[in-house]
Amino acid sequence: MPTLETHNGYPLWLYIPNRPAAVIFTIIFVIITGYHTYLLFRRRLWFVIPFVVGGYFEVIGYLGRILAYDKTGELIPYLLQSIFLLLAPVLFAATLYMTLSRVILAVDGASCSIIRPRWLTAIFVTGDVVSFFIQGGGAGLLTQAKSQDDSKRGEYIIVGGLIFQILIFGVFCATALVFNMRFRRHHHSETYRHKPWQSVLVMLYVTSLLIMARNVFRVVEYAMGHQGYLLSNEWPVYVFDGTLMFFTMAFFALRYPSQLYGGKRVEANIELASGSSASTQRHIV
């Protein structure tokens, strides 16, 4: 049985990582990410690439936990699991933002959205990138910590990035709900009954709530500090992060947005309204 080690006198881990659990979750994410990779090339929805990359981040993260089992004093395994598991949901979120704009455009519902589709992706993905770099910077500082002060500083930065992402998600969910209600109220939904736009929106709601719950867990985890219960015990990361992210990937696959276009690579005419006029352009979905 391995024993806990320190890195330059600082304890990276407060427990011995469970190798069987890490192996199981690695296999799970290899399978679901492999399936998403297949869907990506089968359906050719290239905006889903960040989601697939996020799946590979999960795989790398749990591989890091496997390696850390008997190397708790080494920095690389800790870095792999810490950074990649922390940042994977940011990539999932980027695809969810882009999916909403595709739903709106697929049913010509720009007039029902509080944010024009042409700006929706840019606004939310930009916010996602900012969150990515904030959390990445905090994780980098945390993994290089040589004192409790350095550790706390990294944790505070990560918490700030997570809270920022939660706020973005809140606005995103509100935008989706307002569009959903307006579109139904104006009876446009009858024209597009052959397109499963509502089921794709439900998928966005479910996956967004799963990521939101995971982010709240991470905020509490890092807010409690390195010696807190959540960071000093292993089971929460599998229950409130790994499991939630698996269901996020599974539900996204179940309601894959290619359903909006009959499951094929298509060319769609997209109406981009600007003021009182609209311009139509050819767009490869």
Description:
This protein has 285 residues and is mainly alpha-helical. It has a single domain, classed as Rhopdopsin 7-helix transmembrane proteins, CATH 1.20.1070. Helices cover 68% and strands 6% of the residues. It has helices at residues 19-43, 49-68, 75-106, 117-143, 148-185, 197-223, 229-232, 235-254; strands spanning 267-274, 277-284. The chain has a two-stranded antiparallel sheet. Strand 1 and strand 2 (277-284) form a beta hairpin.
Q: How is this fold's topology laid out?
A:
Layout: H1 19-43, H2 49-68, H3 75-106, H4 117-143, H5 148-185, H6 197-223, H7 229-232, H8 235-254, E1 267-274, E2 277-284
Helix pairs in contact: 1-2, 1-8, 2-3, 3-4, 3-5, 3-6, 4-5, 5-6, 6-8
Supply database-style keywords:
single chain; disordered C terminus; 2 strands; 285 residues; mainly alpha; 6% strand
Total number of domains: 1
The helix-strand sequence is HHHHHHHHEE
Overall average residue pLDDT:
86
Q: What is the name of the CATH topology?
A: Rhopdopsin 7-helix transmembrane proteins
| Low-pLDDT residue spans | 263-285
CATH class: Mainly Alpha
- Strand percentage lies at 5-15%
Q: How would you describe the shape?
A: elongated
Sheet with most strands: strand arrangement: 1-2
Helix % is: 55-70%
CATH architecture annotation name: Up-down Bundle
Would you count the extended β strands for me?
A: 2
C-alpha end-to-end distance: 53 Å
